[in-house]
Amino acid sequence: MYNYIAIEGIIGAGKTTLCNTLCRALEAESLLEQFEENTFLEKFYESPDAYAFTLEMSFLASRYHQLSHILSKPNLFPQLTISDFVFYKSLVFAANNLKNDELQLFRKLFDIMFNKLPKPDLTIYLNISIEKAQKNIRKRGRDFEFEIEDQYLHSLHEQYIKYFGQLQNETILILNMEERDIMNNPEDFEWIIGLIQQKYNAGIHYF
Prior knowledge:
There is one protein chain. This protein is of the alpha/beta class. The chain has one domain (4-206): 3-Layer(aba) Sandwich (Rossmann fold), CATH 3.40.50.300. Helix content is 50%, strand content 13%. It has a 6-stranded parallel beta sheet with strand order 2-3-1-4-5-6, with helices on one face.
């Protein structure tokens, strides 16, 4: 039914875990964000004001490169592709991290790129509490993420919801994952499988 599904959520929401699990179950092609190659990420957490613009620009370029590479293939999405990011994630994070002049410049560049890229047929947003996100962050053990503050995560969530409300002609599922555990509870995973096998009208759908 869908050719391109994207998974989103705040830091620690479980995007990559769900993406990989769905790809194995559905024999889909995965498209994973290459954040580990970004040399500015740790520097940003150490000094946000100094590296925010450089970080967001580098992620913008990386995400554009990954998605534009798909466009270069002879058959766009020849099989189901599932990604653990959407391109407009760049604008969500930029709105959270950049100051006025920097954000205006960033938005101009974003708009030029955004119109040239494929859009997901379906976007899944994993909605979890800040407490659960922090637990997940500590569990995966990236030291540079340990200093992420609750307010930063809360602000990211608010930016996502605000941006979703501005989108037109896109289908977004917002899933309450607070009590869900797709790795240890097969019923939770089957619940998500069932949701993505349905057809939805454009707009935001809450589950």
